[in-house]
Request: fold
Amino acid sequence: MITRRTAIQLFGSASAGAWLASQIGFDLALSPNAFAARPDPTPPLAPGAPTSPERLALIDTFKKQSDGLEKKFEASTYKSDWVMPYRLFRPQAAGKLPLVVYLHGSGGLGDDNLKQLGLGNVFGTRVWLLPENQKRFPCYVFVPQTDRGWARYDLSQSSQGRAKVLPGLGEGSRLALEIVDALRREFAIDERRIYVTGQSMGGAGTWNMITHRPNFFAAAVICCGSVSAEDGSGSINTALWNFHGASDQSVPVSVSRERIAARRKAGGRPLYTEYAGVDHNVWEWAYTEPELVRWVFAQSRG
Reply:
C-alpha cells in the first residue's frame, strides 16, 4: 500500500530533463488564446489569462454547480487477487452509451471508496455529471480507487527512500481494466467510445493504461501526469489532450513536455495545453475548459 507521503515523494521525483524550445509541433498554451506551431486544430480555450478573474470565475462556478453530484455515484467493490473499491455513475438515457474512466490522484489513495471522489478529484469526477453535459453527452462514469498506485512501482524499498518506477502494467491499472471489461459485459456500453482521464498519479496511470492496452481507448485526457516508465509514445493513434501548469512545484512541467515530444516524434498528434502561473492543481483549469467535454465525446475509436 502506498501512503500519500510516499506518493508525493515518488510522483514529484522527476528529472528536470532538457526541453528543446525549437521542437516543432507543440501546442503550448502559455497564454489562453495563443498557440505555438500547431499541426492540428486545438479547441479554443476559455477567455482570459489563466489567473484572471474571469477565468477563475469558471472554476468557482463549477464548484457551486457540481456540489452534491458525488451522491449520484453508486458504491461497489471488485474482488480479484485483491479488492478494489469503485464508484459508478449510471446515466438515465437508453441505448449504447460511452464510458469515462477517471483515475484519482494521490489524495484519493486508500480503500474507503470515498476519497477518490473528494479533494481535487471533484473536478474530474463531476464534470461529466453536470446536467447540461448529461443532456448532450449521456455516459457512464467509472471511478476506481487504489491503495498501491496506478503505474508499476517497486515498493519493497520505499521505506528507505523513493519507490522505484518499473516498466509494465501497474497493479491498480490492471484491476481497473478488469472492472472495465466486466462493465462492458454488464451494461450497454459503446465500445468505440471508452475514454480514460486522470490527474497527477492518475495521469501517470492514464499513460500506463493507454500504453499497455493500446488502441482500446477512444481518447485520453491527462492532467500533470507524474513519473512512470511510459515515455508518451505508446498507442499513438489514441486521441490525447495533455494539460500541465507551467509553475507546477510537485510534478515538473518537463515531465509532460518530454512525453509530448516523444509522442510527436513517434508520429502521434497530441494536444498540449500549458498554463502560465498555474501550479499542480492544473485539473481545476483543464476540467473547466468549456470545449473539453465536447472534444472528448467527439472522439471515437476506429
